[in-house]
Structure formats: structure tokens, C-alpha cells
UniProtKB/TrEMBL annotation:
Any one of the GO BP annotations: heme biosynthetic process
Entry protein name: Delta-aminolevulinic acid dehydratase
Residues at the catalytic site: K199, K252
Molecular functions (GO terms): porphobilinogen synthase activity; zinc ion binding
One Pfam assignment: ALAD
Pathway: Porphyrin-containing compound metabolism; protoporphyrin-IX biosynthesis; coproporphyrinogen-III from 5-aminolevulinate: step 1/4
Reaction catalysis annotation: 2 5-aminolevulinate = porphobilinogen + 2 H2O + H(+)
Binding residues for Mg(2+): E237
Keywords noted in UniProt: Heme biosynthesis, Lyase, Magnesium, Metal-binding, Porphyrin biosynthesis, Zinc
Species assigned in the record: Halorubrum alkaliphilum
Length: 326
């Protein structure tokens, strides 16, 4: 018997755009930018082909390159001149990210997001203040409540510099409330907050840790980032962040966690973001370099999958490349 229902009828060039369920536009994308206080030239990031750490003097030029591709939003990460136990260069008024934000927001129309975390700024590489004896006993943890104040200070200093949005990524319990209150107290009610709500302890961050020099010197992040085995827990994390005042809820990484993106989309009425992380970028590049995959096609399909799963916006190292083509 022949089929009466033929899905193929809707797969012609004429009709398929009409019935397409998801789409990808440059306006969905956020491009990461690394500003580095230790260099006065652009330094290529080896594990992330096409990306560089740029000095503050090059930050505006870097953002303008991105904007020429149609991508209007950037998220800034900093490599400080010095590191210490409490990550004090993360919340210094003249910190590398604060200086870059000041320039970018004064000289461009980009939408500027500040990543709020301490791991690039602490000498031990953890995302907060650690117990004194943590080095000898890595089972000891990052001190949650002592870290809150420093994250709040970091966010306020970025907002003071002109950030449009702050994005706490430290997975410290209560960080969204602490930051929202501190921003409001400082007169920054208009600064938006995107929380890395479901951030997993993932091996896909490897290239980023090279790029931003933020690998933990001892121990790991399992006591504050989420266990990759857990799905329900992401709803709990997201609910807490929504209650605490997050405007946008992010899932990170992206592709290995499409179920989580989809869950959050269904459960919440807030915009959902996905972070297509450094490892997701690096693996496609490595395969393409070997001639095993078509880079442009697989990058596009990856981001489209995140949209299909329910992401409204995507932080991705492919932003510039795809922005150009979209
Ligand atoms: C800071 C932070 C990390 C990433 C974004 N913000 C590193 C980490 O948690 O280890 C990773 C981004 C990527 O891999 O692209 N906490």
C-alpha cells in the first residue's frame, strides 16, 4: 500500500522555509572576547583557532570586528596582570575587564555583558575564596558565603564601568540575589542579570581554561558545579535563580545538555540561553582540520540544534563566523 501521508511534500525548496520550525540569526548570538592585561599585542589562542586574547587598547577594535558581522552582543573575560588568593583584580576599578568595558561602552554600540567569576583572578584558580588548608586537603571547599560579597563587588564594578548585563558563572549558592541587591543598591536597577543557572562540571571547558588561564591549581569544581548525571537538579538551580531575580537563565555546556535546555524552556517563562562552550568549538575545528567534517555546516547545525531545543540566545565562539553568513 502507498502512503497517504507524505512528509516529503513539505520538503521542497519552495515550502520548506515556510514550515521551518527554528531559525538562527546573528541577533541570537553573543561573542566571547578575552582581554589580557599581560600583553600589548594580540595573542592567538592555540586551542581555539581564530580567537585571540587582546590588550585593552585593542578591545574596541576587536568588538568592532565582531559587530561588522552583524553580532551586536559580546561577553568579556579577563586575564589580569596579577592573581591572588581573593581574586582582587576581578573587582578592581582599574581591572582589565573594567577598563575594557569603559572603552567599549563609550566608543561602540555593542551590548556589553560581563562574566562574573573569580577563577581567572585567583592564584588557586577556583571560582571563590578557598578554605586555608584546601591545598593540602582538596576535599575542603570554596567558601560559599564569603565568596558572595566578592562576586557582588565584581558585578557592581562592571556595571559602574558601563556593562549592560552581568553574568555570574561561579555557581555560588545565593549569588543571583547577592548581585541583584548590590546592583540595585548601587543604582544599577537597569543592568540585566543572566545567570549561569545550570552550569555543569564539564570536561568541555578545557580550551577555555587555557585561553583564560583559569584551571584550578588543585582539586576540581565538583563541589560547586553540577554533576553531569543530573537533570532534575537543573530545574532546582534554575528555579532558585529565577526566584532570586535572574532575567535570563543559562545552560552550560550546550550540545551535551540539550535535554536541560529543553526542560528549562518548558518550565520557565524567562529567556533561556545556551553556552556553546570552548570544547564544542575546538572539537569541530579539530575534525575539520583533518578533513573529517565540514566546519561551517556542523557549526550551523550545532547552533540550530540549541535553538530547536529551546534556547533564545547562544553564547558561542562561532558567533563571528556564522554572523557573517546569516
Ligand atoms: C568561568 C567560566 C568558565 C567558562 C565560562 N566562564 C570556565 C570554567 O568554569 O571552568 C567556560 C567557557 C568555555 O569553556 O567556553 N567560571
Amino acid at each position: 500500500m502507498y502512503p497517504t501521508d507524505r512528509p516529503r511534500r513539505l520538503r521542497t525548496d519552495g515550502v520548506s522555509p515556510l514550515v521551518s520550525e527554528s531559525s538562527l540569526a546573528a541577533s541570537d548570538l553573543v561573542a566571547p572576547v578575552f582581554v589580557d592585561a599581560t600583553t600589548d599585542e594580540r595573542v592567538p589562542i592555540e586551542s581555539m583557532p581564530g580567537h585571540e586574547r587582546v590588550p585593552v587598547d585593542e578591545a574596541v577594535a576587536r568588538v568592532e570586528e565582531i559587530r561588522r558581522t552583524g553580532v551586536e552582543a559580546v561577553i568579556l573575560f579577563g586575564i589580569p596582570e596579577t592573581k591572588d588568593a581573593t581574586g582582587s583584580r576581578a573587582y578592581a576599578e582599574d581591572g582589565v575587564v573594567q577598563r575594557a568595558i569603559r572603552r567599549i561602552s563609550a566608543e561602540t554600540d555593542a551590548y556589553v555583558i560581563g562574566d562574573v567569576c573569580l577563577c581567572e583572578y585567583t592564584d588557586h584558580g577556583h571560582c571563590g575564596v578557598v578554605e586555608e588548608s584546601a591545598e593540602s586537603d582538596p576535599t575542603l571547599t570554596v567558601k560559599n558565603d564569603e565568596t558572595l560579597e566578592l562576586l557582588a563587588e565584581t558585578a557592581v564594578s562592571q556595571a559602574d564601568a558601563g556593562a549592560d548585563m552581568v553574568a555570574p558563572s561561579a555557581m555560588t549558592d545565593g549569588q543571583v540575589r547577592a548581585i541583584r541587591e548590590a546592583l540595585d543598591d548601587a543604582g544599577h536597577e537597569g543592568v540585566a542579570l543572566m545567570s549561569y543557572a545550570a552550569k555543569y562540571e564539564s570536561a568541555f571547558y578545557g580550551p577555555f581554561r587555557d585561553a583564560a588561564d583559569g584551571a584550578p591549581a588543585f582539586g576540581d569544581r565538583r563541589h560547586y558545579q553540577m554533576d553531569p548525571a543530573n537533570r532534575r537538579e537543573a530545574l532546582r538551580e534554575a528555579r532558585l535563580d529565577a526566584e532570586e531575580g535572574a532575567d535570563v537563565l543559562m545552560v552550560k555546556p550546550g550540545l551535551p545538555y540539550l535535554d536541560v535546555v529543553s526542560d528549562l524552556r518548558r518550565e520557565f517563562d524567562r529567556p533561556i540561553a545556551a553556552y556553546n562552550v570552548s570544547g564544542e568549538y575546538a572539537m569541530l575545528h579539530a575534525a575539520a582540520e583533518n578533513g573529517w567534517l565540514d566546519l561551517e555546516a556542523t557549526a550551523h547545525e550545532s547552533l540550530l540544534s540549541l535553538k530547536r531545543a529551546g534556547a533564545d540566545l547562544i553564547v558561542t565562539y562561532f558567533a563571528e563566523d556564522l554572523g557573517d553568513r546569516l
